[in-house]
Structures are given as C-alpha cells and as structure tokens.
Design goal:
The chain is an alpha+beta fold. The chain has three domains: 269 residues, Bira Bifunctional Protein, Domain 2 (BirA Bifunctional Protein, domain 2), CATH 3.30.930; 131 residues, YbaK/aminoacyl-tRNA synthetase-associated domain (YbaK protein, Alpha-Beta Complex); 98 residues, Rossmann fold (3-Layer(aba) Sandwich), CATH 3.40.50. It is built from 16 helices and 31 strands. The strands form eight sheets. Strands 3, 7, 8, 9, 10, 11, 12, 21 and 24 form a nine-stranded mixed beta sheet that branches. A hairpin with a 5-residue loop joins strand 30 and strand 31. The model has no long low-confidence stretch (mean pLDDT 94).
Amino acid sequence: MRATNLYAPTLRNTPAEAEIASHQLMYRAGLIRKSAGGMYTYLPLAWRTIRKIEQIIREEMDAAGGQEIMMPILQPSELWEESGRWAAYGAEMIRVKDRHAREFCMGPTHEEMITALVRDELRSYKQLPVLLYQIQDKFRDERRPRFGVMRSREFIMKDLYSFDKDIEGMNESYRKMYVAYTNVFTRCGLDFRAVEADSGAIGGGHSEEFTVLAPEGESRIACCDVCSYAASDEKAALRPIDASHEEELPLEKVATPGTHTIALLAEYLKIPVEKTIKAVAYQSEDDTLILAFLRGDHEVNEIKLANAVPGARELRMADEEAIRAAGGCPGFMSPIGIKEGTHIVVDETAMRMHNAVSGANEADFHYTNVNPQRDFGAVTVADIRLVEEGDECPVCEHGHLHIGRGIEAGQIFALGTKYSAAMGATFLDETGKSQPLQMGCYGIGVGRTMAAAIEQNHDESGIIWPRAIAPYEVVVVAVNAKVEEQLRYAEEIYEELRAAGIDVLLDDRRERAGVKFNDCDLIGYPVRIAIGPKTIENGSIEVKLRKSGELVNFARGTYLKGVQDMLAAL
C-alpha cells in the first residue's frame, strides 16, 4: 500500500469529546470517526488491526477445538422469555418490532440463540463436547457511551460457547479457553492479568476477566503481593475485620445536631471514623428498598450488595420518600427501628464492631454503644464492601491487596445449566437418561482489545503498536518524494520488503519530511525506514524503532536482515 492511496486522515488537534488516550489517538491517527453517540466507523488502518486481532483469535479458538459459525444479530423475544432474561436484562437491550409487531432484540449476547441452535441437534453424550464461536457485532444501549470504542453501543465481539456432558467436561472446556485466551493476549503483545470476576447479567458460576493493565483503565483490580490471587474490585472477596474486644455498654441515644455525614459525626463526638456505622440506601428495579450498613470508612460494593439481595439486579440511590416510609431518616439511619420487611444488609466487618455509633432514625440524633450482634436484630450479613489498598488477602495468610487499573478485554464464564435447563437443551447420557447440557461462554471484545493496546502502548507522540497487531509492521518513507531518485530508491526497498513477507507501507506523499515523520510516530508503525539524501550519497539506510526511538544505519546489503532481526525482537 502507498500512502498516497491510503485513507488515513490524521489530525493535529484532539477532539474535545475524546477523554482518554486511546480515544484521542484513534481519532488523531485516522483510525476511527464517530457516526453517532457510541457508534464509530473503523477506517482502513483500524480495520487492518481488527483483522489481525481476529486472525489471532481464530487461530487460537480453532486450536482449542472451536468451530466458527455465524448467528443472526436480530433475536426473537421468545427465546429470551424462555431463559427469563427478556424482562430481566434491563435498559441496555435494544428492542425492536417488525411489521407484524413481533418483538426482537439487537443481540447484546447470544446465550439464548446458541442454546436454541443446539438443543434439537445435540442428543447424545457421544456428540459432546462441542465448542462453537462467532465474531460478530453486538449491541448494547449504554446509558453513557464514552471512551470511544471502549464503551460503545455497537462493538465487535468474539463469543464462544461450550457444551459438555458433565461438570468435569465443562471445567476442561473452561481450562482450554483460559489457555487460549492467555495465548491470544500474549500474541497480541499485551501485558495482562486474569482476575476473578462477577458473572453479571450472563450468570452462571465461576468467571474470570482478562484485564489489560493500563494506568487509566476503567477497571480496578486487586492483586496480592504474596500469592497469585487477583480479582476485579467487583468480585474481590474480603475477610471481615475484627474489632478490638470491648465490654458491651448499654445503648444510649444522644443529640448530634447537624451531623448528617460521617465526617461531621466523627468530628462532633471526637471519635475515629472507624467507630461509626454508616448507611447507604438503594432501590432495586422494582422499587424495593435496600439499606446497606458498613463501617464509616468503608464504601459499598454495589455488585456484592445486589448479589446479597434475592432478585436485585440494578440498583439506584433511594428516594427520600421510600426511606421515610420504612421508618428511616436520611443522614441519621441504622437498622434499629426500621420497619419489618425492609431489606437490610450489614457488612461482615460492621457486624463485628463494639460500642459503635450509628443513626437513631431521627434527625440530629444517633445511638452510641451500638453492638450490632446485640442490637441489629434479623438482618442479612454479607461481604458488601469495596476492596481498598492494603486489605488482607482472602486466600493466603500473609499477603495484602494492592489496587491497580486495567481494561477488561475478555471474560470467560462457567455457566453450568443456567440456560440449558431453562430452555430444555438436553441429551441422553450413557444410561439413556436425559440430562441438561453443561455450558460455558467466553467473550473477547475485539475493538476493545485494539483500544486497550493503544492505552497500554503510547507516548506523547502517538501510538506504539505491538508488532503483531500493527496496521503495518514497517513504513518506508521517501524523505523528499519530489526527488525522483529518492522515490525510486524507496520503491525498491518497499518491493524488497514485500517480497520478504513483511507487511509494509510506502509513504510516497509529497509532504514535508517533518509531517511524514510525525505521522509515522502518531500512527505508530513499529519500524520506520527513511530514504533520504544520505541513502543516495553512500547507501546508508536509516532505520528507527518506534518503541525505543533507537536509530540504526544499515548498508544497502544488510538492511533487510537488520529489519527482520528488529521485528523478530519486538
């Protein structure tokens, strides 16, 4: 490809809406253009990278026994009603009706579709295991699309589904996908970590996210400094913290005027925040009130909280009217005096406190000497707090958790029989007995992987592509394409590189050298070859590594081997 024919409109200025590096650089390097909120067109350079990522994925899925298919994007509501998710999935599902008023959705995921596909075909244990996958657009009506293709309404996903006869088989398929995903992200040249994760709307049992490490990543991950434990902040299990033993004192109601926050309360009573119990009130999608109580210096993990309340899926902050109807008083709440039937969840650590302070459900009053196990009555006790830097590792005895950031690029799920049992996908086992299929599902965000690679690999000048997924491995720049001898020499080098199987672009534009060099750095080609006056004078060919900025001059007869060695080392 010649740059004079390449559609790659680069920008010198960053669009105001682009908040993070990957979004900014994909705009500026001519990779994407916005079509509508949360929807983007991939331009040629981006599409080349997308295709390279897809090829790596296909090779690893095929090596693990996967078979590629393609399912419809439009999915009938009847299938989702069978699984129970049509009403439950939430506002992210894009729903449409055809001319006959039949309801469909634009597929956000394909568990129902794949289960319906195989339930009439996989009838015997002898046909198992089966692993089917596709690479296809998905659609989710994000409440707030942001960060470019990182969180968009339409996105490319690889989703594979496994079908096995028993739990052991499902676990083996899960293991194969874990290895395959490790290979995919390693081959893409990314620094990543597999972490325990919440299953979310997909459901099922065990799940792990493959998180590309990046300082500005949207995900928070907790990693032990001693053992291999790692988990997303949504999933990180935490040991309850035991408070120092104290003799229980009688409950006492005291006036605390104007102390509607934990900070004001602690200051007024001259006590540490760790001696207070705070309340956070939520409502679920059906308006059920859920009251969460934690130690004053801890934060609610909303995913854990929703998982602790049967039927709760999406939480929002509670209305004051709902709080007061349950007997609560905003800013001064505790479980003491709340009406029966209210969902009250107390964090395990808060439940172990002694002689603490919590609200009295009356404005400007609190209780002191609160001992939750004595005073809180019938409440749900669960780990509902958000992991913090320095928390004890829940697995080993000596480690502590450190918080890092990353970008979720893939996730794997052990589904079990969640969908097969609901949708009647069964087979006959060795004894002739009907059994539900054991399922797993495994997704990789293709565009998200591309954006994550940029987020992890860039500098002030632009993108620094890992070689395996760079749109072109090498760019040959005719420093002054108006000089016929330089252009001809650059064309010879370009053809030699192509003949050697190297993915190469020729920058033959009649632009200033500075413009072309800046574009090379912005777009991020791993290797740049400059053909200028020195090349014509003495055959010296300048080669630059984008990652390190190293400049090496090769003779005409040795440059090809030098470039091949450089690429091999990337």
